[in-house]
């Protein structure tokens, strides 16, 4: 408002001067025209100087102007200086970010338009063999591992992907993708070669030790059975021999579970090499459950339809049987154990419900860990190995499924296996 008044005052001064000139000469109209012409020429000259400064790239300070154009020049100059300071701060921040990410051991890759390379740090260049001229190309052109392509283009996943490094089969990488913005993504790459080798050593050690324990266990169990059957052992040894047999059987079950778990961890991922008929599988597991229960529980089977699962019959049988045997071990006598199979638009589902003591929700995240015990005393009394749910978890991962747990203290437990629709098909008629 003050600037408009000042500009109006300048125009009034010019008009008054021309009016005085017109009054003294008697030429009113020419005086008025002259005043307007002088004012417009003055405004046009300043506008032209400011426009020339803009067309030259706004180099240096704006031209010195007066009136409203002077005010515009001053405001523009202040905005230019503020923008320059903000730009310098942004460049400094960007340099700090680049310096900090450059010092990271983890590789950082920024993607745009889905999977086009936008930026990466030196660690990512080293791990993925990226070169400075690769910007704008698809990341899948350099990392052609099918599992990585599926992981990058698939839905957001909670678990990272482990794969071999491109161009170096002896190096193992862990990759995690985070989507954000408008079809943009951030890829974090870690070198996990050392951890992978340590895990491989652990798996080999467990497998070898478990295999080597089978022979001495067989010998010990054989001699104990012989002593018991011969009747030549002193009567006071009867109880110790019985306890030794029980512990030998428990040890043998533990070794067998370790061998199964080791095989699941080290063998190739299942791709659906067999067609497993669910009906006979559930019936076989139900018969085994009744035999294990020995009449102490009521075993109910609910199988809604005939269906085939693409996978491994031995692994699926192991997963189903482990859930059922757990229900027998942890359910009081007289309880009901329900084995149920059904199918819907989400896929196929197998559940085992019991009327046992139940499990508090705080234990759910760790139930599938090896040797994790909710109640170690109760597990020892029931003869469990602590590996059953770990085996179930690995089987479901290999079959693209998931394990769901529902339980509460005093209300029993319900363990459900979910299989994706692409793993299922209708059973053929006999």
From TrEMBL:
Pfam families linked to this entry: HATPase_c, HisKA, PhoR
Transmembrane residue ranges: 12-45
Source taxon at top rank: Bacteria
UniProtKB keywords: ATP-binding, Cell membrane, Kinase, Membrane, Nucleotide-binding, Phosphoprotein, Transferase, Transmembrane, Transmembrane helix, Transport, Two-component regulatory system
E.C. no: 2.7.13.3
First-level EC class: transferase
One Gene Ontology molecular-function label: kinase activity
Catalytic activities: ATP + protein L-histidine = ADP + protein N-phospho-L-histidine
Residues in Histidine kinase domain copies: 208-423
PROSITE patterns: HIS_KIN
Subcellular location: Cell membrane
Cited NCBIfam families: phoR_proteo (TIGR02966)
Full protein name: histidine kinase
Organism per entry: Biformimicrobium ophioploci
């Amino acid at each position: 408002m003050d600037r408009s008044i000042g500009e109006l005052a300048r125009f009034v001064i010019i008009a008054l001067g021309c009016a005085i000139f017109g009054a003294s000469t008697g030429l009113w109209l020419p005086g008025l025209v002259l005043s307007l012409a002088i004012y417009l020429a003055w405004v046009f000259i300043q506008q032209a100087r400011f426009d020339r400064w803009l067309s030259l790239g706004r180099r240096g300070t704006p031209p010195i102007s007066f009136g409203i154009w002077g005010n515009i020049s001053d405001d523009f100059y202040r905005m230019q200086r503020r923008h320059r300071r903000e730009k310098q701060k942004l460049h400094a921040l960007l340099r700090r970010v680049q310096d900090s990410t450059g010092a990271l051991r983890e590789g950082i890759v920024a993607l745009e338009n889905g999977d086009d390379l936008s930026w990466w740090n030196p660690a990512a260049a080293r791990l993925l063999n990226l070169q400075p001229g690769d910007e704008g190309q698809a990341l899948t052109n350099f990392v052609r591992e099918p599992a990585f392509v599926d992981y990058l283009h698939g839905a957001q996943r909670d678990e990272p992907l482990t794969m071999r490094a491109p161009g170096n089969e002896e190096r193992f990488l862990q990759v995690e993708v985070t989507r954000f913005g408008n079809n943009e993504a951030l890829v974090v790459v870690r070198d996990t070669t050392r951890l992978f080798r340590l895990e491989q050593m652990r798996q080999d050690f467990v497998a070898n030790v478990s295999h080597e324990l089978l022979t001495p266990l067989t010998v010990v169990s054989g001699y104990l059975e012989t002593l018991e059957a011969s009747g030549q052992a002193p009567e006071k040894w009867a109880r110790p021999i019985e306890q030794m047999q029980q512990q030998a059987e428990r040890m043998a079950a533990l070794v067998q579970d370790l061998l199964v778990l080791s095989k699941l961890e080290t063998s190739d991922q299942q791709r659906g090499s067999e067609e497993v008929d669910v009906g006979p599988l559930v019936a076989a597991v139900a018969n085994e459950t009744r035999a294990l229960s020995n009449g102490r529980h009521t075993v109910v089977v609910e199988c809604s339809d005939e269906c085939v699962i693409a996978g491994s019959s031995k692994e699926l049988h192991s997963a189903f049987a482990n859930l059922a045997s757990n229900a027998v071990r942890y359910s009081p006598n007289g309880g009901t154990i329900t084995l149920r199979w059904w199918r819907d638009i989400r896929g196929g589902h197998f559940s085992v419900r019991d009327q046992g003591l139940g499990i508090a929700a705080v234990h759910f995240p760790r139930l599938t860990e090896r040797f994790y015990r909710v109640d170690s005393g109760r597990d020892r009394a029931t003869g469990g190995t602590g590996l059953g749910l770990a085996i179930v978890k690995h089987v479901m991962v290999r079959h693209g499924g998931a394990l769901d747990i529902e339980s509460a203290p005093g209300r029993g437990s319900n363990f459900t296996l979910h299989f994706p629709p692409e793993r299922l098909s209708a059973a053929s008629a006999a």
